[in-house]
TrEMBL record, chain A:
<dbReference type="InterPro" id="IPR003593">
    <property type="entry name" value="AAA+_ATPase"/>
</dbReference>
<keyword id="KW-0762">Sugar transport</keyword>
<keyword id="KW-0813">Transport</keyword>
<dbReference type="GO" id="GO:0016887">
    <property type="term" value="F:ATP hydrolysis activity"/>
</dbReference>
<dbReference type="InterPro" id="IPR027417">
    <property type="entry name" value="P-loop_NTPase"/>
</dbReference>
<dbReference type="GO" id="GO:0005524">
    <property type="term" value="F:ATP binding"/>
</dbReference>
<comment type="similarity">
    <text>Belongs to the ABC transporter superfamily.</text>
</comment>
<keyword id="KW-0067">ATP-binding</keyword>
<protein>
    <submittedName>
        <fullName>Simple sugar transport system ATP-binding protein</fullName>
    </submittedName>
</protein>
UniProtKB/TrEMBL annotation, chain B:
<dbReference type="Pfam" id="PF02653">
    <property type="entry name" value="BPD_transp_2"/>
</dbReference>
<keyword id="KW-1133">Transmembrane helix</keyword>
<feature type="transmembrane region" description="Helical">
    <location>
        <begin position="213"/>
        <end position="234"/>
    </location>
</feature>
<keyword id="KW-0813">Transport</keyword>
<feature type="transmembrane region" description="Helical">
    <location>
        <begin position="61"/>
        <end position="85"/>
    </location>
</feature>
<feature type="transmembrane region" description="Helical">
    <location>
        <begin position="92"/>
        <end position="111"/>
    </location>
</feature>
<keyword id="KW-1003">Cell membrane</keyword>
<dbReference type="InterPro" id="IPR001851">
    <property type="entry name" value="ABC_transp_permease"/>
</dbReference>
<keyword id="KW-0812">Transmembrane</keyword>
Length: 523, 305
């Protein structure tokens, strides 16, 4: 760290060659140009943002930077010297560390084992643990080294990744969407750590789609669109709206919410829903109460893994409740009914996972239309599929929701995340369901598609349907929801009008700091 | 020698090949590869081991031939599932059919040949103890080797950095790759180890257990070894327990048949398999949610560059 010592505490080093410079980086996958002559330079002590829509080429660029992919063309210079990164080991030995978006952790191994997996093999487990303890103390990143990873929260998991990264004494740390799984409070803690690292001379490449964060944390930003650099800016000097415009290429429209009727009749009612988890590391639901009224959007916030998936399964009928009266749609008890029966009563469901749950990856869009509409779409006659009607309905969804695709009826897996999500959401909304339950409607979806989906959901509610949105994205909920409840450790807080809530109060509920429903907990 | 002592001794002999083959498969599966070809590799080990022992007139060289044959058969499997990213289940099944067929060809000239019994440990005083003497101090070298192997595999998997590497690769291949761990190399070595163990188990069958070779003599033991790994929840200590439980069931049903206790022999023959199913059900009731299976088990791995 001798070279960095000179700049410690002084922020970005403005003299000499940048720490890392990528010149004319191009990566071609078959006929797709993922990166098209990208230039990117980062200086020591700088927090540099990499911005772009999904599919703009951010992940590809980062993988090249970490040696996971080889560029088709272009040059990488480290402190002015050309280098070839043949693998993550080489990137690490230069001093490049990476904190992955989908954590690269091993669920069934302990924290110490997870850290050791990335360390040089000549160190014993005990030595690794001792070093990890040093670093976690130094940066205030507390974590229990002996616990298996599956018992940890997303924030704790990220801390492991950061500790693992810091142990390699990095000069450059890459963070891919680090706050997407964190509560606002956890994110604040992360920012303090990052600022401390930058002050000690470490360069940080910060990838995020949350522009307010970027404007708060970063001193420069490179914006990608369709594989090209469209601008390099100082994010503190430009408004979030302008940055978003650069990312998308067109001006974005805000969702027109217009608050819903406060006193519609309840269309989806849940009373005392408790459900053990089926999965190995799942979350049981405890005594959930909720009612969604006609014309209303009810949002459920929460950190991933607090029972959202289980709640969705119980509402959709993928898992049955312990009694018919526990779930009611338009006053009819449905707790004992399966998915198709609930659909026939006017409900519709959009699960979190697009590929594999919302759609069959290798099936064509028309076949995927049949998947959720066979009971309600007039697509089946006496056990036979009406192919023409199915294709016509698929086409109507594709046109109404601006689903962009290649070919007449492509397989679901060939669509981009945003376009497939538009299709999956559109498939349900076109039915004009009386009750719609959506889990993470815009997760991993680009801003343009997200805006379209959100508007469609709000419009559906305004037409008299009851819409329940489960989301980890607080901004999204504050934009759309009339009331917000928080799910934490399988319990749901009482919903409150969005206007009466702040992000801080919701954030506290998400951490379980405030007891839901005023009940006393034995924590 | 009392009847009880004789039964206990045969149980050990019947259990040893199961334990060795199961430990090999356990290591392979811990690295994330499901090799259903154990039966085929074992058959190759039995035939080549026996052929080698006759040709070189040496049990030791025969055993080495068996290990080598198992390893080479496994290398074929590794080429298919690692090199070509072929489906592991289909490749494993094909390997079993291939191994059974080729071993028949290799072993054919040696039908009718016999090997002498191999020497057993003898410690004066200890081995002569009544009942337990021969059981604990009078076994052949393979029995002790298999127990050491069990300890060694457990120590390797849970106490060494290399073992951690192997478990990490099996647990989550994507994470392992993004950390720069050599996924394919680890799996290749694990597959070869599994093959060598299956070959050794096969050689034990033809050189020690029966001391002659006949076609199809593995008679499903490779499959039992595969089942044992699941039964043992991918833990070597439970594999030891499982192998001896199954070995005991096999031997006891033979004695029950001999004693003519009035149960049809077919039902008795099915007993070991029934015991396995019952044990699996009981075990999975106990741990309903977490089976302990490696997270990436059976998934082909293709790194993109």
């Amino acid at each position: 760290m001798t070279e960095l010592g000179a700049t410690a505490g002084a922020g970005a080093d403005e003299t000499g060659p940048p720490l890392i410079a990528m010149h004319g980086i191009t990566k071609v996958f078959g006929s797709l140009v993922a990166n098209d002559h990208i230039d990117l330079a980062i200086r020591a002590g700088e927090i540099h943002a990499l911005l772009g829509e999904n599919g703009a080429g951010k992940s590809t660029l980062v993988k090249i930077l970490y040696g996971l992919l080889e560029p088709t063309e272009g040059e990488i210079r480290w402190r002015g010297e050309p280098v070839r990164l043949a693998g993550p080991q080489e990137a690490r030995s230069l001093g490049i560390g990476m904190v992955f978006q989908h954590f690269s952790l091993f669920e069934n191994l302990t924290v110490a084992e997870n850290i050791a997996a990335a360390m040089p093999p000549d160190l014993s487990l005990a030595e690794v643990a001792a070093k990890a303890r040093d670093v976690s103390g130094q940066y205030g990143l507390s974590v229990d080294l002996d616990r298996p990873v599956w018992t940890l929260s997303a924030g704790e998991r990220q801390r492991i990744e950061i500790i693992r990264c810091l142990l390699q004494d990095p000069r450059l740390i890459v963070l891919d969407e680090p706050t997407s799984v964190l509560t606002p409070q956890e994110a604040d803690r992360l920012f303090v750590t990052l600022e401390r690292l930058a002050a000690s001379g470490c360069a940080i490449l910060y990838i995020s789609h949350r522009l307010e964060e970027v404007r708060r944390l970063c001193s420069s930003a490179t914006i990608l669109r369709a594989g090209r650099v469209v601008a390099t800016i100082d994010p503190r000097a430009v408004s979030a709206r302008e940055i978003a415009g650069l990312m998308v290429g067109t001006a974005l429209h805000d969702v027109v919410a217009g608050r819903g009727a406060a006193e519609g009749a309840p269309r989806l009612v849940v009373r005392g829903l408790s459900l053990a988890s089926e999965k190995a590391h799942g979350q049981a639901l405890r005594d959930i109460e909720l009612a969604v009224r006609a014309g209303e959007v009810l949002g459920i916030a929460g950190v991933a893994g607090n029972g959202q998936g289980e709640l969705f399964a119980a509402l959709s009928g993928e898992r049955l409740a312990h009694g018919p009266d526990v779930v009611a749609i338009d006053g009819k008890p449905v707790g004992h009914l399966g998915v198709t029966e609930r659909r026939r009563l006017g409900a519709a469901f959009v699960p979190e996972e697009r590929l594999g749950h919302g759609a069959v990856p290798d099936h064509r869009l028309a076949e995927n239309t049949l998947l959720s509409r066979h009971g309600t779409g007039g697509l089946v006659s006496r056990g036979f599929v009406l192919a023409d009607a199915t294709r016509a309905l698929a086409t109507r969804i594709i046109e109404t929701f601006d689903v962009r695709k290649e070919g007449a009826d492509p397989r679901a897996r060939t669509l981009s995340g945003g376009n497939l999500q538009k299709f999956v959401v559109g498939r349900e909304i076109l039915r004009e369901p009386g009750v719609l339950v959506v889990n993470q409607p815009t997760w991993g979806v680009d801003a343009g598609a997200a805006a379209l989906i959100r508007q469609a959901l709000v419009d559906l509610a305004r037409s008299g349907s009851a819409v329940l949105i489960i989301s980890q994205d607080l901004d999204e909920l504050f934009e759309m929801a009339d009331r917000i409840a928080v799910i934490h450790a399988g319990e749901l807080s009482a919903p409150e009008a969005t206007g009466d809530l702040t992000r801080e109060t919701v954030g506290l509920l998400m951490t379980g700091a405030a007891a839901p429903k005023g009940t006393v907990h034995a924590h | 020698m009392s009847i009880v002592e004789a039964i206990l001794l045969t149980i050990v002999t019947a259990s040893t090949p199961l334990l060795i083959a199961a430990l090999g498969e356990l290591v392979t599966e811990r690295s994330g590869v499901l090799n259903l070809g154990v039966e085929g590799m074992m058959a190759m080990g039995a035939a080549c081991g026996f052929a080698g022992a006759i040709l070189f007139d040496s049990t030791l060289l025969g055993v080495l031939c068996g290990i080598l044959a198992g390893g080479l058969t496994a290398a074929l499997f590794a080429f298919a599932v690692l090199g070509l990213a072929a489906n592991q289940v289909a490749s494993g099944l094909a390997l079993t059919i291939f191994g059974l067929g080729l071993s028949g060809l290799i072993g054919a000239p040696f039908i009718g040949a016999r090997r002498d019994p191999i020497t057993h440990l003898h410690i004066p005083g200890l081995t002569d103890l009544p009942l337990v003497g021969r059981l604990f101090f009078g076994q052949d070298a393979f029995v002790y080797a298999s127990l050491l192997l069990c300890l060694g595999v457990g120590w390797f998997l849970f106490r060494t950095r290399k073992g951690l590497l192997l478990r990490a690769v099996g647990e989550n291949q994507t994470s392992a790759h993004s950390l720069g761990l050599p996924v394919l190399r680890v799996r290749l070595l694990a597959i070869l180890f599994g093959g060598a163990c299956a070959g050794l188990a096969g050689a034990y069958l033809s050189l020690v257990y029966t001391r002659f070779w006949s076609p199809g003599m593995t008679s499903g033991r490779g499959w039992i070894a595969v089942a044992l790994v699941v039964f043992a929840a991918w833990r070597p200590d439970w594999a030891l327990f499982g192998a001896y439980l199954f070995g005991a069931a096999t031997v006891l049903q033979l004695h029950a048949q001999a004693a003519a206790i009035g149960i049809p022999s077919q039902a008795l023959s099915a007993l070991p398999y029934l015991a396995t199913i019952v044990a699996l059900v009981v075990l999975s009731l106990g741990r309903r949610r977490d089976t302990g299976a490696p997270g990436s088990l059976g998934a082909p791995f293709v790194p993109d560059r």
